[in-house]
Amino acid sequence: MRRLPTRTTGTVRRRVVGALAAAALCAAGAVAVPAASASATQAGPASEAAPALDDGLARTPPMGFNNWNSTHCRAEFDAAMVEGIADLFVEKGLKDAGYQYVNLDDCWALPARDANGKLVPDPERFPGGIKAVADYVHAKGLKLGIYTSAGTKTCSDVGFPGALGHEYSDARQFADWGVDYLKYDNCNNQGVDAEQRYTTMRDALRATGRPIVYSICEWGENKPWEWAADVGHLWRTTGDISDSWGSMLSLMKQNLPLAPYAGPGHWNDPDMLEVGNGGMTETEYRTHFSMWSVMASPLLIGTDLRTASDTTYDILSNREVIAVDQDPLGKQGSVVSSGDGGWVVAKEMKDGSRAVALFNETGSSRRVATTARAVGLPGAPAYVARDLWRHKSFNTAGTLAATVPAHGTVLLRVAADPKWAGQPPAAELGLDEAVFVGPGASTKAGSTFTNLGRTPARDVAVSLRGPGGRNWKVTADGPAKAPVVAPGSALRTRWTVSAPAGTATGSYDLTLRATYRSPQGTEVTSTVPVTASVATAPPDGTSALSDLPWLATANGYGPVERDTSNGESAAGDGNPLTVGGVVYAKGLGVHATSSVDYYAARSCERLTAQVGVDDEKDTKGTVAFEVWADGRKVASTGVRTNADAAQALSADVTGAQLIRLVVTDGGDGIDSDHADWGEPRLTC
Questions:
Q1: pLDDT exceeds cutoff 90 at 219
Q2: For residues 441 and 498, is the Cβ–Cβ distance under 8 A?
Q3: Helix (H, G, I), strand (E, B), or coil: what is residue 604?
Q4: Of residues 105, 170, 180, 240, which has the active-site annotation?
Q5: What is the pLDDT of residues 457-481, one digit of tens each?
Q6: CB proximity list for 270: less than 8 A, separation 6 or greater
Q7: Helices 79-91 & 129-139, crossing angle to 10 degrees?
């Protein structure tokens, strides 16, 4: 028997539990809800063709809190927690920053309705009922949200009552309790048409006369962006998020192409925030918050604020980033460019400026660049670019560029501001190429400080330092200072980088720093984390990649595995690599979205492998395989499914320093995307 995934609270939980529960109900002879009209048996007004929602609600993306990502159905989800979150909204300034909804997710009710068919709040979790909690939240100047499903049961395996067939009764209860927001899930839907189910609840909410923001949570399965603008205020475009880099990245990529469908009162929703839950780094959480904001996504905090760190509060309360999300024009950011892991996403703002995200999805620092004209700004003598995480403004002649750390995002707000000369010049700082060095050896590196502004940079000084406490040596071989760097000019410095003997293969952080002054005397410090890779050239001949040391990896769930499949959790929890019934003794087991970097030292010619979705996922999983050589895609498969036999992949990597093996999610999310590189071999 193959090992089942250990995740039970993410996309797998929502979809699999719903499908199994629906099947069980049918098998047990449960009465199906008539497809013709889910509300026909209720006391409610007859449905009419609804005009587009124009009720004044959700004119900007909703901001608030939802407990699911931090508590699931555990006992700590109760009235005390909800009221404590409301208190913290006020005490920590989140209310003033724009957060207003305190939302209950699944498990707030008893498993059975009362004798009159009414929902019953769990008396242990909510001893005073939901209305008492709503009154408490309202007294803080905040709003309360609640959850149910457009099915016979909710998504929990406990089986709490869903609203299918009870829409008008349940909506009336919600309104009477003072609910301001409804999240309406998709489990146990009995096969009833999605548009019909969600439209019925829209009409039921409208019939209460209470303004209630309506969140459609059907996971994007029926493309709600194409039909729900006159049904709900926001709709999920993806499956559930989980607290991992791979999950967040996958959902972001699914949501980005849907920009034309978003606007005031009708938003694309790539799911709640995971910021602060511990599964990602601070850099990754800043990217998460930045990209959700530039996509005009709802900002629903998913961490328990009672135990949140100062760093988490700093991210969630960055008002300049929030202003991007909440801009009243209501535009979702669109992709300007993407390639080799570097993304530029730009969002038009009501004041004519552009929010510009320079995003690096790779596991190493890299340059990401665009121009003011490319992001839609008019021609101008110069522009002001404000860094929304550094909270500093600069003038630029038009180039927008940065060395972005691994999994990081630089978020700018750029405008054709006539007062540009009052700001210091923008500068780009970075290494000229990737740094590779052997243990106990030295190598040369080059750095460049470029003045991107219209005014000179004065008293420029550049430094490069090795990892702290590791006895690395870095010395400048040329000038590292200049009295003036004119607009459009650069200071280039050569360095000798020496790694200590015995340093293990891998990537190490170096610190590249520049200081300079503006003509007005403003001092600027720019620090860029860059990477040095300690590596040795692969042996001559043909080697199994799983026997060679890699430089860096990124994986959707769990670690990249050598010679076994990916088990999604701890190292070594996979199975034999198996695709189409064929077992491969050697290889790499990964989970989309994934990348594995190898050093080739410009001495290799060809990489070959047999690739496919591992059999352990039965009929699930869609992925695509790619091979990159020094930033060039040199081989790809297109989308592969579990029904496909292994495909032979061959890539010409002649002369490459760095080879990157990439697995993407096939465009439909990362659920069950176990991918195998069977018998991968490198010839040098």
A1: yes
A2: yes
A3: coil
A4: 240
A5: 999 999 999 997 678 999 999 999 9
A6: 236, 237, 238, 241, 251, 252, 254, 255, 292, 295, 297
A7: 10
d(CA 94, CA 322): 11
Note the Cα 491 to chain centre separation in Å: 36
Where do we find the tokens 């990502």? 69
Question: Can you list the positions of beta strands (E) in 37-180?
Answer: 63-66, 101-103, 143-149
Cα–Cα dist 684/476, whole Å = 34
Examine the residue annotation and report whether 185 is marked as an active-site residue of this protein. yes
- Give the distance, in angstroms, between the CA of residue 596 and the centroid of all CA atoms in the same chain: 20
Q: In the numeric block, which tokens belong to residue 673?
A: 């995307």
Q: How many CB atoms lie within 10 A of CB 223?
A: 14
How much is the pTM? 0.89
Closest to 332 measured CA to CA, from 345, 316, 323, 319: 345
Contact 213, 264 (CB under 8 A): no
Q: How confident is the model at residue 666 (pLDDT cuts 50, 70, 90)?
A: confident
The DSSP bridge partners found for residue 263 are: 266
Can you say whether residue 265 is alpha, beta or left, with left for phi > 0 and alpha for psi between -120 and 50 degrees?
A: left
Query: For this structure, is 547 an active site residue?
Result: no
For residues 186 and 219, is the Cβ–Cβ distance under 8 A? yes
Kindly tell me the burial class for residue 415, based on how many C-beta atoms sit within 10 Å of its own C-beta (0-12, 13-18, 19 or more): buried
Across 331-456, the runs of DSSP E, i.e. the strands, are 334-339, 342-348, 354-360, 366-371, 383-387, 392-396, 399-404, 409-415, 427-431, 435-437, 442-451
- Of 105, 170, 185, 327, the catalytic one is 185
Residue 213 amino acid letter = V
For residue 489, pLDDT beyond 50 = yes
Task: Give burial (CB, 10 Å; 0-12/13-18/19+) of 545.
Answer: buried
Alpha-carbon gap, residue 434 to 630, rounded angstroms: 10
Instruction: Give the pLDDT confidence score for residue 52 in this predicted structure.
Output: 52
Residues 6+ apart with CB under 8 A from 115: none
